[in-house]
Amino acid sequence: MLRIIPVEDAEEPYRAPDLGWNGVFGDLILNALTHEGAPGDLRAEQGLATQVLICLMTDRRVEASELRDGDENRGWVGDSFDMMDGETPLGSRLWLLRRSALYPGIEVKAEDYAREALQPLIDQGAASRVDVTATANHSANRLDLAVTVYGRNGTEAYSSKFELLWRQIDGVANPLTR
After folding, report:
1. Worst-scoring range by mean pLDDT, 71-75, 93-97, 131-135, 171-175?
2. Rounded to 5 degrees, what angle do the CA atoms 107, 109, 113 make?
3. Which Pfam families does its entry note (predicted)?
C-alpha cells in the first residue's frame, strides 16, 4: 500500500491522482479544461475511492501453495522480497476466484479476500471500518461485491458495488467485464 508522507509540515501533502474503473480497466482521471485551479491536470479529489480501487483491483502476489496447476503468480514481484516492517502486500486475492465456479460458499471467500485487501486502509488510519458483502447471482453467472468504507469519524465515506463475472466455465475470458 502506498503511504504518502509530507516532506515538511508547512507544505501541502501530496495527493495521489484519482483512478476511474469502467469494469475492465482503471485509468487516471483528468480535470476538465474549465477547472479553476488545475485545468487539464490529474484530478486528486477522491483519494479514498482511488485507494479502494487499488486495493481491490490490483492482483496480490500469493504463496505458491495457493496456486492451482498451470496458474502463474500475479502481483508486484517486489511484494515477495522487498517488504518493510509493518507493510502488507498490495492488492487482493480476488483474482484466484476467476477460474472457480460459483460454488456454495464462494461469497465467504470473496468477502475474506476483499476485507484482507482493504485492511491497510484501517491500519493506516484512513478508515475506521469496512463492510463487505458478496452475493452470488447464479442465473447471471455473477458474483456481486458491495463495499462500504467508514471514515475516521465513523460515518460512511465510500460505498460502491463491483461485479465479478464468470463468462466461461473457467472464468478466464474477461472476468471483470460487464
Report:
1. 171-175
2. 115
3. GP46
- Ramachandran assignment for 122, one of left (phi > 0), alpha (psi -120 to 50 degrees), beta (any other): alpha
pLDDT tens-digit series, residues 138-165: 888 888 899 999 988 999 998 988 876 5
What is the secondary structure of 25-43 as a DSSP string? -EEE-BPPTT-SSSTTSBP
What is the C-alpha separation between 101 and 161, in angstroms, rounded? 21
- Give residues with Cβ within 8 angstroms of 30, minimum separation 6: 40, 41, 42, 43
Segments in the chain forming alpha helices (H): 47-57, 106-123
Let me know if 56 is exposed, middle or buried by CB neighbors in 10 A (0-12, 13-18, 19+): buried
Q: Where are the beta strands (DSSP E) in 34-176?
A: 129-137, 142-150, 156-165
Measured distance CA(134)–CA(110) in Å, rounded? 7
Q: 122 near 130, Cβ under 8 Å?
A: yes
The whole-angstrom separation of Cα 59 and Cα 90 is 8
CA atoms within 13 A on the CB side of 94: 29
- How many whole angstroms separate alpha carbon 20 and alpha carbon 120? 20
